[in-house]
Amino acid sequence: MYDVIVRQAKIADGSLIDIAIQDGKLAAVGQLPPDVTATRTLDLHGQYWLSAGWIDSHVHCYPKSPIYHDEADRVGIDSGVTTVIDAGSTGADDVDDFYQLTRQAKTRVYAFLNIARTGIVTQNELADMAQIDKVGVAQAIADHPDFIIGLKARMSSSVVGKNGIQPLLRAKEMQQENQGLPLMVHIGNNPPDLDEIADLLAAGDIITHCYNGKPNRILTPQGQLREAVKRALERGVLLDVGHGSASFSFAVAEMAIRQGILPHTISSDIYCRNRISGPVHSLATVMSKFFSVGMTLPQVIDCVTCHAADALRLGGKGRLEVGADADLTLFELQHVPQVFIDSEGLSKAGEQLLVPLAAIVAGEVILTAEGKSKNVFDL
Ligand SMILES: [Zn+2]
């Protein structure tokens, strides 16, 4: 007898599978005999979709952050997201406090540590090089090896002030000194110029806000991929969406995707204000926007499951396989006309909307508001 069985779930390739969960892990994946029992059975009757738990690679959920704050479960399980990675809200000074606060969340929370010891307290945390404290960073990583999964450097003009590319050079040094942890680099207005940033990045480094519409974007004014970004992608640098309030342009995404420049990970850059007032709303909304720029359901799901788990080195996540963490997202794909808005305030029509119905975290089933109202598991 298992803890939970999910029967007849539709997965991204359209096939139907059953899943059994025991002690917080996936115990069976495939077709289960009819006589197998569990404490709780959810029969989706081939009507609802299931994937490995969604991972949002770029959120802000340190509740005490003065600008970009939120609660982990508001950006996580409330919208079917089982794992969130806070992208640099905290630095060495306050990551302990952030870690403690996240222990109460049902959502699994990890952090990219801001290379500035203050995190994002002001908008210009890298304008003073004295904020970049190697000893503090190394100590924080040593104190929280299972929480801090990487480093974050925000490399745009308002953040770095007169320091140009210098903070990124320090970030790369710290990455070397700390087991080569993933490094997420935010791009925006120049200086520093994106070419200069891209040339410093290596395989596994992550560019977030990859489809921003600012002049310092990945495409040239003629719409071609910048040579420096092309070389970076060839070296294995990864593109992360990081939609946010100012960093996603439908026009840029569409032009890039048409040239085969797909995102490696789709993330929201969500926090309370852009969650409530838009244009982000939820990871599901951000994912749905990619149907309108030429991506398929399997491609979109891969971006928030296996791609994210690999990029962030989250072992046991992102795949429906025996022994993996029993983190799952149950959702519906609604076919109804939509109008989506990007960060430039421009709209685009769509026909499909992902609606999360439940997050399952370590085998615990947590319905979203939609899931509750539909009584999908009233069995
Ligand atoms: Zn962000």
From TrEMBL:
InterPro entries of this UniProt entry?
Amidohydro-rel, Deacetylase_Atu3266-like, EF_0837-like, Metal-dep_hydrolase_composite, Metal_Hydrolase
Q: What is this protein called?
A: Amidohydrolase/deacetylase family metallohydrolase
Give the top-rank taxon of the lineage listed in the UniProt record for this protein.
Bacteria
What's its top-level EC category? hydrolase
NCBIfam families from the UniProt entry:
EF_0837 (TIGR03583), PRK09237.1 (NF006689)
Q: Which residues carry this modification: N6-carboxylysine?
A: 152
Keywords, A to Z, come to: Hydrolase, Metal-binding, Zinc
Q: Does the keyword Zinc apply?
A: yes
Residues with site note (Transition state stabilizer): 154
